[in-house]
Design goal:
The chain has 10 helices and 10 strands. With 287 residues, the protein is α/β, with parallel strands linked by helices. An 8-stranded parallel beta barrel has the order 1-2-3-4-5-6-7-8, surrounded by 5 helices. Strands 9-10 form a two-stranded antiparallel ribbon. Helix 2 packs parallel to helix 3 and helix 9 packs across helix 10.
Amino acid sequence: MRSWLFAPGDSEKKMAKAADSAADIVLFDLEDAVATENKPLARTLVHAMLASREEGRERLWVRVNPLDGPYTLADLAAVMPARPGGIMLPKASGRGDVELLDHYLSALEVAYGIDQGSTPVIVLVTETAQSMFHTGDYKGAPRVVAMSWGSEDLADSIGASTNRNPDGSYGFTYELARSLCLLGAASAGVTAIETIEADFRNLDGLRIRAEKVRRDGYRGMLAIHPAQVDVINAAFTPSAEELAHAQMIVDLFAANPGVGTIGHEGGMLDRPHLSRAQQLLRQVGQG
């Protein structure tokens, strides 16, 4: 789940292009990318696109509209018969929204012969001021496999004129949102996914940012343009050198059972080093 590529639900061409891309997950968008008057059409087009893509449908997800508005149930009723790979829930105010979504999905899964509980969910957890206080509440929340954050809607929620510093970096509140999302995902035991890079032409900047947040603990990133996908996939794929180093640490501790620290190349390796090495290997199925 390295790259999550949005495509507007009212554009057959853009949805098809996204579905044919190298993105790990494609997000057909019924929310921000679709004007209110186009939402009925978008539901029909998303259903048709899902139905036409039986192979690989598990990677075709749908972002529905938020639960505090009038569109969520209509979105779900339209797309669930076509068995999307998963659902993105935007503007979640807390765990209660996920639990309500779980009830809706369970009813629709039963109605359409889908295994109950089999539709996973990614939650956008920082798009409102209220939600910032609940990022640590998702442990054990039904269906949640990943959490991401957003800065544009958060700025709107608090009445900010911008979310950026003069040098282009995120302001404190938005860096806080990024950190709270990461901590919340770690607490819940799910995957942390970085928010979008709006300047889709700045691929060098995207690479630098993706590599940085991966070092921080993020495991993937949202994308708004197919050109961003390869950069994101590369940034979140461990290199051969990283994997070899992680395997070396695991092998050292395996050869010295029961020890808490091991001296190596003038430094000390301890149990947190071992844990990080094991997590890295598990990412690629070697742990």
